[in-house]
Amino acid sequence: MNYQLLALDLDGTLTNSRKEITPSTRDALIDIQKNGKKVVLASGRPSQGVLPLAEELHLGDYGSYILSYNGGRITDCRSGEIIYSKYLPNDVAAPLLEIVKNYPGIDILAYTDTELISGGDTNEYSEKESFINHMPITKVDDFVSYITKNNNNKFLITGEPELIQEVKAEAEKHFHSYLSIYCSDPFFLEIMPQGIDKAHSLTKLLTSIGLSTDAMICCGDGYNDLTMIETAGLGVAMANAQPLVKKSADYITKSNDEDGVLHVINEFMR
């Protein structure tokens, strides 16, 4: 199969444990773009948190794409145009905050272009999200009125895994099928518009550029990568992926600390 597009999760997939892209992987990704292939950085991160890696890989020079907020937004790196964006209904903010406040130590984060807005109890996992994205946390007293002044692609609820499962159950009970609610990590609960995930948005992108899902390779390691791995012509799990992700994949590559993405490029895109 002549694969034309490579969609990559970032944390645990493209980047190693030091949150870096190795020089050999970087060079290979630039090389396949020079040869006409497209690269999509598909992440739960906000757009601002993906941008430094997109610049490192010269995505703007070759017309590749950022898929941020787990598919809530797609950006054309060459033009800077947002070609798809889906927002949360503003009326979910207040009941979500009420649920969060029932659990000490749990935080809820919203995103601006430059900072994370915290409405709960800032914790080590909120700090982790801040570190990953190079965005400071701003604690606000009136979270709901502050964040509903703007559109929100997603909220992130953070905390200890045991409590996150309790929050997840309560949120699912309250919102039923009104929102997409899932864990990207045991300590991260993603709150997304209904029906939005990486596969949904990648399919929209493929349609807009005239490619089929058969022409796409998707690589990931986490639960939020499942849908795109199942949709791709070749779905790839990292050796360090969650067991369910490995079970769903067509191919298991090396780990993110062993240049697993480079291995995929050499095997299937050269």
TrEMBL record:
Which CDD domains does this one have?
A: HAD_Pase (cd07516)
Write down the PROSITE patterns for this protein, in alphabetical order: COF_2
**In this record, what's one Pfam family?**
Hydrolase_3
Residues annotated as signal peptide: none
Q: Which GO terms describe its molecular function?
A: magnesium ion binding; phosphatase activity
What InterPro entries does its record include?
Cof, HAD-like_sf, HAD-SF_hydro_IIB, HAD_sf
GO cellular component, alphabetical, reads: cytosol
In terms of superkingdom, the source organism counts as: Bacteria
User: Can you say what this protein is called?
Assistant: HAD family phosphatase
